[in-house]
Queue: 2 jobs
Job 1
Amino acid sequence: MRMFRNDYSEGAAPRIMDALVATNDEQCVGYTEGDPHCERARRLILDVCGLDEGEADVQFCVGGTSANVIGVTGMLRDWEGVICTRDAHINVHETGAVAACGRTVLPTDDADGFLSPEGAERVYAFQTSCGRHMTRPAAVYVTNATELGGVWDTARLDAICDWAHERGLRVFLDGARLASALTSEGNDVTLSHIAHTVDAFYLGGTKNGMLFGEAMVIRDERLREAFPFLVKERGGLVAKGRLLGVQFEAAFERGEGDAEAPYWSMARHANRMAADLRAGLVGLGFEPYGSSPSNQQFFVVSPAQQAAFEQAVGAETFYVLDDGRKVVRFVTSWATSRGDVDDLLEFAATIA
Amino acid sequence: MRMFRNDYSEGAAPRIMDALVATNDEQCVGYTEGDPHCERARRLILDVCGLDEGEADVQFCVGGTSANVIGVTGMLRDWEGVICTRDAHINVHETGAVAACGRTVLPTDDADGFLSPEGAERVYAFQTSCGRHMTRPAAVYVTNATELGGVWDTARLDAICDWAHERGLRVFLDGARLASALTSEGNDVTLSHIAHTVDAFYLGGTKNGMLFGEAMVIRDERLREAFPFLVKERGGLVAKGRLLGVQFEAAFERGEGDAEAPYWSMARHANRMAADLRAGLVGLGFEPYGSSPSNQQFFVVSPAQQAAFEQAVGAETFYVLDDGRKVVRFVTSWATSRGDVDDLLEFAATIA
Amino acid sequence: MRMFRNDYSEGAAPRIMDALVATNDEQCVGYTEGDPHCERARRLILDVCGLDEGEADVQFCVGGTSANVIGVTGMLRDWEGVICTRDAHINVHETGAVAACGRTVLPTDDADGFLSPEGAERVYAFQTSCGRHMTRPAAVYVTNATELGGVWDTARLDAICDWAHERGLRVFLDGARLASALTSEGNDVTLSHIAHTVDAFYLGGTKNGMLFGEAMVIRDERLREAFPFLVKERGGLVAKGRLLGVQFEAAFERGEGDAEAPYWSMARHANRMAADLRAGLVGLGFEPYGSSPSNQQFFVVSPAQQAAFEQAVGAETFYVLDDGRKVVRFVTSWATSRGDVDDLLEFAATIA
Amino acid sequence: MRMFRNDYSEGAAPRIMDALVATNDEQCVGYTEGDPHCERARRLILDVCGLDEGEADVQFCVGGTSANVIGVTGMLRDWEGVICTRDAHINVHETGAVAACGRTVLPTDDADGFLSPEGAERVYAFQTSCGRHMTRPAAVYVTNATELGGVWDTARLDAICDWAHERGLRVFLDGARLASALTSEGNDVTLSHIAHTVDAFYLGGTKNGMLFGEAMVIRDERLREAFPFLVKERGGLVAKGRLLGVQFEAAFERGEGDAEAPYWSMARHANRMAADLRAGLVGLGFEPYGSSPSNQQFFVVSPAQQAAFEQAVGAETFYVLDDGRKVVRFVTSWATSRGDVDDLLEFAATIA
C-alpha cells in the first residue's frame, strides 16, 4: 500500500524530473547566479507574484530549514527575536536552528497553528516591558498551510500583518506547503496579495513535487542585502544552482494544454486526494482533528488504530491527547492516486 | 525614604569595602589566577561547601548573566537545550544571552518559580519525541531563591535533581540570591547538600553586599574544562581578578566575634528586614503574592498603590493581573535598616 | 566550446542520473534514515574503506560547505579552533561559516596547499602560549586533493596526522575532490589508509558526478554524537534523503563489466583529461603553476590570455602575481571528452 | 620590588577609590541608566570630546574584551568581518570572542602594531574578490596605544580612517590605553579629533587607575542602536552601574588645583615613569624593541635576563626572536613611583 507518511517520500514529479534529465548535459555556471534556468525561473516567479523587476528579489536555497533560518535570522539583529505559534516549525522541529544563529524564538500560546494578533500582542507586550533586558521582537513567522494543515484567509492574514507592521515588525511566511494552501478549497488569498503584504516568503519545492529546493521572494531590504551572503554562510547555497532553476522553471512554466502551471496543478491534485481521504475516513466514523482543507489530514484515533495506520501507511503521530488517544497525520502529494486513497479507506474500514 | 527597589542599589557592605580599601595597594597578578586572595577565597568556599580540593573547581566571574551563560552553555553541546521555568531569569531577563551563544532555552509551564519534575518531564518527553529534529534537553536550570522569592527545601531540590540525573541531565543552580535562601526562616537545605547534589552552582556576590562578582562551584567535568576558556571568550573575566578574591575572602572569613561569616549574616539581616516588611504590610491589609521567606517580597496592589509605591520606594512591577491589579516587588538588603522598614510601613499605611 | 570552469557545471553523470530516474517512484522515509538506498550506500562505503560495522559512522549531507562546517564544528568545543593552510576552503571561500558557528579558523602560512607539521606547530605553539586568553587548537583541516590540485602522499599525510594526534588534535579531511586525488597518477594513499588514519573525512559527490551530496565517514566519537543533530541544526539535512542514498549507492556499486566502481572511474577519467590538457598546454609553451596530478590544472598566463581563456572556456582566475600575470584554473570532470580537450588546445594554440 | 607586569596589578588610584567610598551609601538605580553619576560622567566625556548632546552616545561596560566584542560585533552584520593587524588584541588575546559571536577577524600582515592602508587594502581586495563566497569586510579595528606601545599620529590615523570611510567601512578604536597614548611625548592627536574621526572608540578605565570599566563613545548609528541590547546580551552590563559612573566622573572631574583631570594626569605620570625606565635601561646597554612613547616598554634580552626580569618584576615575554633572544615588556601605571623605577634600574644594572 502507498504510504501517506509525507509529501516528500518519492523523488520528483514527472514534469520536474523530465526537465532535469533534458537539461542534464547543459553547462551552467554555479550557485544560482547567471545561469539561464535560474534567471527564467526568477522572471516566472516575479510574474506570477505580480511583482515588477526590482520590487523584490527571488532567491533559491536548498531546503526548508535553510529557508527558514536564513529568512528569519536575516530579518533580525543579534538581540532581536521572532514571534510565532508554539507549534511553529522553527520552534519545535528544527533542532534550535534559529538559536544556533544566535537569535531567539518567541512562541505564543496560539494552539491552532494560526498566529493571532492577540497572542502576538501578549508576547510583544511582555518582551517590551523590561527594556534591553529582554529580547526585542522584530519579526513574526507564519506558515501557510500551517503545521496543522490550516489555510489562512485574507482577513486573517491581513490582521496579523497589520498588527506586525504597525509595530515595525517584519513578516516572514514559511511557504513550504504554500501551493497546497493556495489551491485548497475555499482559499481566498492570492499569491499576489501575499507577495505584496508579507516582507518575505517562500514557494516550497521539496513538498510539492521537486527533488528539493525553495524559492524565496523578498521585498524586505534588510533581508535582500543579507540573503546572498547568508545562504552561503549558513550552508544553503547549492553548487549546481541549475537544479533549482530547472525545477522551478518547470514548475511555473505553463505548457501546451495546461490549465495552470504544474506548481499549482500538482498541489491541487494532492488537495483533492486529501479531501477524498478525509471524506472517506469521516464516513467511516473517524474523528478529524481540526479542519484542514490542504494536503495534511489529522485524525484522532485509538492507540491500536494508530499502530495499525503507522504500520500500514506510515502515518505519523503528532500528539497524544490526555485521554490517551492519538492524533495521526495522513499526507497526500502529486504522487497519490485515487486508487491509493481507496486502498487506505479499505484498510481503514477494517479497523474503524 | 530608602528605596526597596533592589538589593544592588548601594555600593558594597562595609566589611567588603574595607577589605577592598585595605588591599588596594597590593600588587596581584590578574585574571583571578594565582593571586593570594582568590586562592584563599577558593579554599574558604570549598571548605564551607564541605568539598575536598580536587572534588570541585571554584571559579569567579563578573556578574550574574555571565555566570548563567557560562554555566549553562558550558554544560551544553551545540544542539542541546536547558529546561527551566517560564519565569527563569535566563528565559526572560537576559536578552536571549543563551541563544546568543547558540543554545536553546526550553521553558516549562511551572508558574511558581520552582521547576517541577512533572513540568520538566513534559518538556523532556516532547523534546525527545522526534529524534534529532528537536533540541535535545541536556541540563536543567533552577534558582534559589527563585525569581519569585521562593526557597527550595531539600525534598523538592532532591526530586528535581534525581529526575534530571536519572535522564543524564546536568543540574545548574543560579545562586544569585542563594545566601538569602539558605538563611531564610524554615530553610532546611545546607550548602554542603547543594554542593554535593547539583553539578554546578554559584554563590552570588552582587546581590549580597559586594560591588559585583559571583563564585561558581563546579563539579561537572564538562563545565570544569570549559569555564576557564568560556569566561574569557564570553567577556566575563575580570582583569583585576583581585577584586573578586578580596570580596569573597572578606565575605567568607569569619572574624573575631562573628557568629557566622559576613556572607551569611548580611543575608540573614536582609531576610529579617523582609519578614518585618511583610508582616507589616499584611497587618495593614495588603495581600501578599505567593509566599517568600527571602529578601524579595511580592504584593498585589491597585494601580494607584503601585504608582505610589514606585514613586516612594522604587518598587518594581512584576505582573499585571487579569483584573488590572499589579504585583509589585520590595527588596531588602544588608543596607536596609529597621528604620527604613518603619518608614515604608508608615507610608504604606497612608495608602492602604 | 565546452567550459573548463568547474567540475559541477553539468547535471549528474549518466549512471547516477539513471539511478535517480529508476528509483524515482519508490517511496522512502526521509532524512537519510532507514531507507534501503542510504543503508546500502553506507555498507558499500564502509566496505570500500575497510571498516567494520560499528567502527565508524557513514553520514550524508547536502554539500561541501555543510560537510566542512558540521565536521569541523562538531570536533570543536566553543573555545577551540581548527588549524589549516591559508588557502583552505574554510578559511577563504565559505563566507566565515565556521565563525558563524562560533569557532575560530587558525591559518598557517603554508602556501602550497599542504598543511605542514612545521606550519601547524608554529600556530599551535603560539596559540598555546597564553593559556585561556587564546583560542585553543583542537583539530586540523586538510584537503585532498588540495585547493591547488595537489595530492597528499602517505608519508606526508601520516606526518601531519601524527603531529596532530601526538598533541591530542583531531584530523578532518575535506574530500570534496578525494576521488580525483586517489585515482591520480602516482598516488600512493589508499582509501582504507585514510579511513584508519584521519578522524573524519568525506567522499565528495557534487564534484564527482552527482547532483549534490557528500558522504562523511566518522570515527571520532565526539563528531559521531554530534553529526545527527548538527546536520539538522546547520541546515544540511536533506528531506528526500533517498537522493543521497541512491546516488552514492550507484557511485559505489560496481556493475557488470566495471573495472572499478563509477565513483573511481569517473574521477580517473577526469584526471586523464586533465593530464592531456596539461601536456598539451605545456607543449604549447604555457607555464604550469605548481604541479597538480588531479582534475584541476593551474597555469600562469598574461592578462590578455587570461581574458581569452575566461571568455572561451570559463577559466577562473585564482591569483594575480606581482608581475601582473595571472594564475588561471582549468577543471575537468566525468563530462569532459578528449574532443573537448582538443578544442581547448586548438584555441590555446591561437593565443600561445 | 614593585612589579612592572601590568597596569592593572593594583586596585584603584586614590582619587577613584575615594569617590567609590564617598558615594558607597547612596542608592542608585542600576545598569548605568538614570543614576546621576553615570549621567554626569556622560556629560563630562561628551564635553572633553567636543561633542554635543545627541551627536554621540556614551555607554559603559565592564571591561576591555566586552568593549571590543560589543563594539566590533555591533558594527558588523552576520557575514561581515573586521580588518585589524595580526597582533590585534581581538585577533590573538580574546579567545576567539569575536568568532564566538559569529563574526570573522581578518588580520593583515602589519607587524608594527599600526594598521596600514596598504595592509588593509590587500585584505580588502582579496576578501571582495569572490563575491558572497567570502566574508565581507565592514569595519577596521585599531588600538591606541597599540599592543606594542606605539602611538598614532594624526596623519597616520586620518590615513586609515580615510581609507576605511572611502570604502564604506566603519572604524573602531580600542582605547584601553588611550589615555597613555594621548598624554605621551610627541603625541599630536586630540581626543576631539578622534571623537570626530572614528565611528566609535572607548576610553579605558581598567588600565588607567580604575577598578574596572570602559566608556565607549559612539557616533555610528548601527552601533548606537545595538549597544544597549548587546551589552546585556553579551554579559557586559554591570548591575551596580554606579560603579562605572562614579569612577569615570572622578576621572574626568577636574578638581581644585588640578592642572588637568585625573584621567590625564594619571596617564601622564605613567608615561613619565616609562620614559625614565626606558632611558635608564638604554643607558645600561639594553636594546629597546620598537619605539614606544607610552606606558609599555619592550626590550630585547637574553633568556637569562628574561628569567631574571620575570622573577624580579614580573616582566612578561611577548616574543621569542629567531636567535633565541626574548622580547620582554615592562609596564608602568599611576602606581609606579620614581623610586620603583630606580629599584628596577638598580637591579637591571646587576644583569646588564
Note: Chain C touches chain D at residues 78-79, 81, 92-96, 98-104, 126, 130, 132-135 (CB under 8 Å).
Job 2
Amino acid sequence: MRLGYVHTRVTDLEESRKHYVDTLGMRVVAEEPGKLFLKAWDEYDHHSVVLEEGGVGLVKLGYKCRTPDDIAAFENRIQSFGAVTERMSKGENLSVGDGIRVVLPSEHVLELYSEIDVVGTETGSLNPDPFPRHLVGVGVPRIDHTLVTCEDPATLERFFAECLDFKPSERVVTGLDRDADLIGSWMFCTNTPHDIAFIKGPNGKLHHFAYWLNDWNEIRHAGDLFAMDDVSVDVGPTRHGITRGETIYFFDPSGNRNEVFSGGYITYPDFPTITWTPDQLAKGIFYISRELNERFTTVLT
Amino acid sequence: MRLGYVHTRVTDLEESRKHYVDTLGMRVVAEEPGKLFLKAWDEYDHHSVVLEEGGVGLVKLGYKCRTPDDIAAFENRIQSFGAVTERMSKGENLSVGDGIRVVLPSEHVLELYSEIDVVGTETGSLNPDPFPRHLVGVGVPRIDHTLVTCEDPATLERFFAECLDFKPSERVVTGLDRDADLIGSWMFCTNTPHDIAFIKGPNGKLHHFAYWLNDWNEIRHAGDLFAMDDVSVDVGPTRHGITRGETIYFFDPSGNRNEVFSGGYITYPDFPTITWTPDQLAKGIFYISRELNERFTTVLT
Amino acid sequence: MRLGYVHTRVTDLEESRKHYVDTLGMRVVAEEPGKLFLKAWDEYDHHSVVLEEGGVGLVKLGYKCRTPDDIAAFENRIQSFGAVTERMSKGENLSVGDGIRVVLPSEHVLELYSEIDVVGTETGSLNPDPFPRHLVGVGVPRIDHTLVTCEDPATLERFFAECLDFKPSERVVTGLDRDADLIGSWMFCTNTPHDIAFIKGPNGKLHHFAYWLNDWNEIRHAGDLFAMDDVSVDVGPTRHGITRGETIYFFDPSGNRNEVFSGGYITYPDFPTITWTPDQLAKGIFYISRELNERFTTVLT
Amino acid sequence: MRLGYVHTRVTDLEESRKHYVDTLGMRVVAEEPGKLFLKAWDEYDHHSVVLEEGGVGLVKLGYKCRTPDDIAAFENRIQSFGAVTERMSKGENLSVGDGIRVVLPSEHVLELYSEIDVVGTETGSLNPDPFPRHLVGVGVPRIDHTLVTCEDPATLERFFAECLDFKPSERVVTGLDRDADLIGSWMFCTNTPHDIAFIKGPNGKLHHFAYWLNDWNEIRHAGDLFAMDDVSVDVGPTRHGITRGETIYFFDPSGNRNEVFSGGYITYPDFPTITWTPDQLAKGIFYISRELNERFTTVLT
C-alpha cells in the first residue's frame, strides 16, 4: 500500500533530533533507550521514521499492506521466489502489529505489516485546515520513497514485480538492445512515480530516503532553512529528469542522505515504463545542470 | 483504475475547439461528424474528452479498469446492487474496447472498459523531457476528476463503495449525529483526493470536470490566459478546504463548468475520512474567502 | 523617497495587535497610551505603522525624503500650489525628526520628514540571511503603498507631480478624448508601480494600505492564514490588470482595508504611462474574474 | 537612471540569435552587418542588447540618464575624478542620441545617454495584459544588471559613488577592520539591489549580465528550457545570499555568461549597506549549497 517507515541508524541521537525535529519539523511520538520514533504532520500512522543510535545506514524498511490476507499472499510469493521470510509479531516494533520480515535479494530488510496505531494527522478529520497553523522548520508533511543500492537491480526489480505487485515507472539500461543490463529501476505500488527505487551498487546500502513537499517554492524554502541550520546540502535545488520531480539532496548529521521531493507525474498500473539510456543519464538525474557530482554517486550509508 | 474520459455535449463545436485546444491546450486526436476526441499532452490513452455537438451537459463518463475480469466482477456487484448494466462492444466508442455501461442511481451513465488505443504522451517514453517544449495555452497535462449532482448522495456513495471499491476521502453531512444526512461525498479509487465527487442536487447533472495543473503558479497563469481569451471565470483562484486543492472554476463556451486543480493530499485505502459540517462548509469549499457565490451552487449542465 | 508610515485609527488596540502582530507578523517597537508603533522585519526605520485607538480611517501618511533641503524645496512648491503646510518638529511623532505637515487638496494629511531612528532590519547588515529564521504569521517584510479616495483626482495628481516629483504609472480615464475625466491615478516616486494611488470618491478617506510579499505563493499562504485567523477577506487571491500585481484585500478588525501585494513591473522616470478605459476597468482592477464586487468599491474608512 | 544596453561580442551571430531569440525570447529590432539589436518584451526603449560578431566579452555598457543636463553634470564629475570621457554623437549607436563615452578606471567602456527611440512594450500602454499572450521561450521581460571584474574595486566603487550617485547595497571585504580591502561591491542607482556590481579580477572583463524573471518558478522553467535547448548551465537554480536573489547562471553559445535573476529586496538612498566577510562568502554567493565552483570564479569573457 505504501512506504510505512524508514528505520535508520544514526551516530548521535540528540544531533539527529535537532535535524529531524527542529529543521525538518517531524514530531517525536515515542522514545525508547537509543531510539526515537518520529511522525510527520500529515501522516496518521504512529510513526514513519525510527532513528536508532549506533552507526549509520538502513536497519529496515516497513511497507504497510491492506490486510493480513494480502501479507499471507505476498509471503507465499516471496517464498516461491526463494527469498527468506520470517514471521514478525505484534510488539517487535513499537505500535506495529503482526507481519513478516523479508531479507531481500539485495540484503536489505523489509517488513510487511497491516496494523499500526493510528494517531491521526495534526489537522484532524473534522473541518480540517490545509496545514497546521504553526509548522516547525521545513514542515515536511510525510515521507515519500527510498532509494537503495544493490548488486543486481534486475533481480530486485523482478522480486518487487512478482512478489509485491510493484511496477517500474522508469528504468535506466545500458542500451536499447535485448541483452542490455538494468542499471536502475524506479517502482511504484501507489499512483506516485516511485515508492522504492534501486540502482546498481553495493548490497544493503541506503542512497537516500525522501520527504514530500508540495511545490518548488517549498523546495527552495527548505534549502534556505538548510543554510540557516547548517545542514549539509548534496545537490539542488534542481529538477529530476527521472520522475520529473523537484529536489534537494542533503545529509542528516550522521551522513544519511535525505531528500525533499515535490512534483512528478501520476502513475497507474498501465503506465508505459520510461527508459533512460546512459548518454542521457546525467540529464535523467539532474535535468537542469546535466552534471553528476562524485559525491552523489558514491556516498552511501 | 481512473477517470478515463468525459463525454459532454456542447452547443457549438468550433467555439469549443477554440476553448479546449487553443486555450486549454488539448489536442484533437480524432473527429467524427458532430464530435471531437481530445487528449491532453501527458495522457497516453487515445482520448480523455469527447465533445458532442447539441445541447450541454454530460453524455457519459468512462472509467478505465485494469482487466476484463475486474469489469466482470464489477458487473456482478452492480447487478446485485440493483443498477442497470448493459454490455458495451468494441467500437461503440471510437478506440475503446469491450466493457459495460451502467445507469447510476443518479441517472448518470458510466462506462467501464479496460482497453483503449494507447498513443503515448507527447514527451514519449525514451529519455523524456518533463514537459513538451512548445505547450499550447494553459497546457493541461491530464483530466483529473468530475463532480456531479444527485438527489441521493448516500445511495450513490454506497454504490461506488460497494460496487467499485471507491472510498470517501471527505464527506459533508448535515450534522455529527448518527442520523445526519449526507450532502456530498468525495471518493477516490487512486491515491488522489478524489476521482469522482457528488453533491446533493438534481439527478443526471454535471457540476464540473477538472484538469490537473502542477502548482499554484500554473493556476494563476491559467487565470491570466482565461482573461486574455475571454473565458468566463466562475470562482478563483483560491484554495479548497475540501481536498486542500488550488482551483479556478470556469465555463466552456457552452456553459459547462471546467476546473483547473492542483495540490491536494495523497490518499490510501486506510485514509481516515474527513467530515465537514454545514457551519464550516463555505470554508470547506472556498477556504480563503469562506464565501459561496450563488452561481457556483446553482449553475449545472 | 518612499512611503514611510501609515498612521490609522482602530476601534480596539488589543484586537488590532493580534491582527498586525500575530497574523501579519509585524513587531511592536513602541507603545504610548492608546497607540502602537509597529515595524515589519525588513524595514530599518523605527516604525512604519502607527495604530491609534478611537474610530477608523487614516490619521496621516508619512513620506520620508532624502534631506531637509529636499523638504524645503517641496515646501516651496506646495505653497506655490496653494496647499496648506505647517512645520513639524522633532518629537511630535515618536522617533521622527523635523519636517512639514501638509493638508492635501483631498483633505488627507501628509507628513514629510527626513530623519527617523534607524533600528535596522531583523536580518541585520552583516552576512545576513535572506529572511528571519522564525517568521511570525504572514511575515510581511515591509509596507508598500496606499490608495486613498478624493473628489478631484486630477488636482491631486497634479499636486503630487508638481510638488513632489511623482509620476503616474497608470491612469483610469472616462475616455480617450482630450476632455475626458481622470477617475484614478497610480503614482510612483521610486521604481515600483505605485507609491500612492487615488481614485474618485469622498475626500479624506482610506481605501487600503498594502504590504509587500515576494510572490504568488506567499499571497496564497497569507490567504490560508487569514482563514485560520478569521481575518475578513474582501477580494482575492487574484491578479491586478493595473500594476500587474498579485493581491488579496482584507480587513483589519476595525474594518480598515489592508492588502498583501506582490509582483508588478519596474518603473523609471521615463515610464510610458498606461491608460485604462471604463469598458476595461473591471479587468484592470481584477484581471482574472473581470468582476468588481460592491464592497470593494464602496467600503472606505 | 538604469542599465540601458549591454553590447557584447559573440563568435557566431546565428548561433547567438537562436540563444537570445528562441531560448531567451528577445526580439530582433534591427540588424546591421555583423550586429544584432535586441529588445525584451517589457522594455520600451529601442534595444537593450547588442551582439557584435567577433570574439567574446564586453564592448560597452550603456546607462540611460534622465536629461542632457544630468549627463553634463556627470561629465564634470567624471573629469574631476580623472577618468577619460569623450562626446558621443547621435547615430554613433543606432537609435541612441548624444551623450558621453567614459573609459572606467577598470578599462570598461561606459556610455551615458538620455535619448533613444521609444518603441513601447509588447503589451502596450492602453488596457494592457500583464504579459504577451504568446511568449517565446523563457520570455525574459527585461535586462537587469551586469557584473564585471576589475583590479581595484575600491576605486571603481568610489567612481560610481562620486561621479554617478550610485550607492553600495552590499560589499565583500577582507575583514571588519578599518584597513580591510574591498573584494566586491554591488551598487544601485534605482531601487533594486544592484544596477552594476564588480568583483576583484582582471580589468575589462565581463562576469555576466542578467535578465529579470518574476519568481522562482520562472527560474526553474528557464532551467528546464535550457536543458531542452542544450544551453550550458554554470550554476543553479539557487538563492544568492548577496541580494537575496534567485538565480541560474548559464552561457551563451560564445561563452558569455548570462543570468536569470528574480527576487531581491528594495533599496533606497538611505539603505544600510550590507557587509560580507570572507568566511561567509560562499554562503553570500550561493546561499543554499554554500559552495563555489571553480568555473564560476574563473571563467570570464
Note: The interface with chain D takes residues 216-217, 220, 223-224, 226-227, 233, 236-239, 241, 246, 248, 283, 287-290 of chain A (CB under 8 Å).
